[in-house]
Design brief:
Elements (H helix, E strand, L loop, with lengths): L1 H42 L3 E10 L4 E11 L7 E2 L4 H7 L2 H21 L6 E5 L2 H4 L4 H12 L6 E5 L1 H5 L2 H14 L2 E7 L6 H6 L4 E4 L1 H5 L5 H16 L3 E4 L5 H10 L3 E2 L10 H9 L11
Parallel strand pairs: 2-4, 4-5, 5-6, 6-7, 7-8, 8-9
Antiparallel strand pairs: 1-2, 1-9, 2-3
Helix pairs in contact: 1-2, 3-5, 5-7
The structure holds ligand C2E and magnesium ion (3 copies).
């Protein structure tokens, strides 16, 4: 009986190995497939950028646009990043896609600046994988030159994790970008674990308060306190601050009362195609002034 049990265990073990191998192959295959599809999408020009206004709340002026990636396979609606960015990161394709995003965003900004908005800026999200490229700073310089916009018109949005991981290398890279005149902002601020020490050590210019905290302003005491603390901290560290995910007049009013004067969110506009953004910048959001609400 013991022999039989042993035999069964072995068989089961073998079956498990077979099972895991199959599952693993499937996962690897799936990743390869998505990698391949994203590579094709890039080659076939299926990516587009949408732009979301960043607004100075008291004047209603749009001072910058955040470029947000969309994937639009022919004959379909644009797919948001949430659904494929992680795959692009895993497959490494985010490096090529990110380069395309940067080039596209800078070229578009040039059109807007030449078309009567010489002060407008552009914000572009950066993946940690892009920063790993040792020639990344040179590439950014080249893209700015080709587009014909100054480094001061570009803001790169980094993640808190970039301040924590490989920090000596990242510190050197981010310092070079900053020395070139590029502004660096910390995206989704408050969701990671970056300490004050990191913020002082790195050449960070502004903080973007994560939308999860903004969403709960007035509803969740902890989140409300956190928003207040981040705004106060930014002020004492001489950093800029912008709130993400502002959806209501009440949120805008609270933020202004706390000393945060810049916002981005559905209250003003969602991210829109370049042609629609051109119409947005022609008008100010004067009707949305939180002080008159
Ligand atoms: P993010 O950079 O924090 O961008 C803000 C996200 O919140 C965007 O989603 C935007 O459409 C959405 N959003 C803006 N205002 C509101 C609001 O009032 N309410 C709500 N509920 N949502 C709002 P999206 O475009 O799906 O992008 C998701 C994330 O994907 C971005 O978060 C960013 O981390 C990443 N991403 C987008 N484009 C790129 C890119 O070109 N490169 C890289 N590496 N990442 C990108
Ligand atoms: Mg962002
Ligand atoms: Mg964010
Ligand atoms: Mg909450």
């Amino acid at each position: 009986a013991a022999d039989t049990a042993m035999y069964h265990a072995k068989e089961t073990g073998r079956d498990n190995v077979k099972f895991f191998t199959a599952a693993l192959n499937q996962a690897v295959q799936r990743r390869l497939d998505i990698g391949k599809r994203l590579r094709q999408a890039l080659a076939r020009d299926e990516f587009t950028l949408h732009y979301q206004p960043q607004v100075e709340m008291d004047s209603g002026i749009i001072f910058s646009a955040e470029a947000l990636l969309r994937w639009q396979p022919p004959g379909t609606q644009p797919i948001s990043c949430g659904d494929f960015i992680a795959n692009a990161e895993e497959s490494g394709l985010i490096v090529s896609i990110g380069e395309w995003v940067l080039r596209q965003a800078c070229q578009q900004l040039k059109i807007w600046r030449d078309g009567g908005h010489p002060q407008l800026k552009i914000a572009v999200n950066l993946s940690p994988r892009q920063l790993e490229q040792v020639n990344f700073c040179a590439l950014v310089g080249q893209i700015l030159d080709e587009a014909g916009i100054p480094a001061s018109a570009l803001e790169l949005e980094i993640t808190e994790s970039m301040l924590m991981q490989r920090s000596e290398y990242n510190l050197a890279m981010l310092t070079r970008l900053s020395d070139m005149g590029i502004a660096l902002s910390v995206d989704d601020f408050g969701t990671g674990y970056s300490s004050l020490a990191y913020l002082q050590r790195f050449p960070v210019h502004s903080l973007k308060i994560d939308q999860s905290f903004v969403r709960d302003i007035g509803k969740d005491q902890n989140d409300t306190a956190l928003v207040t603390a981040i705004i106060a901290m930014a002020a004492s560290l001489h950093l800029g601050v912008i709130a993400e995910g502002v959806e209501t007049l009440q949120q805008a009013q609270f933020l202004m009362a706390q000393g945060c004067h810049a916002a981005q969110g559905f209250y003003y506009s969602k991210a829109v195609r370049a042609d629609a953004f051109s119409e947005l910048i022609a008008n100010k959001f004067e009707d949305k002034n939180p002080l008159h609400g």
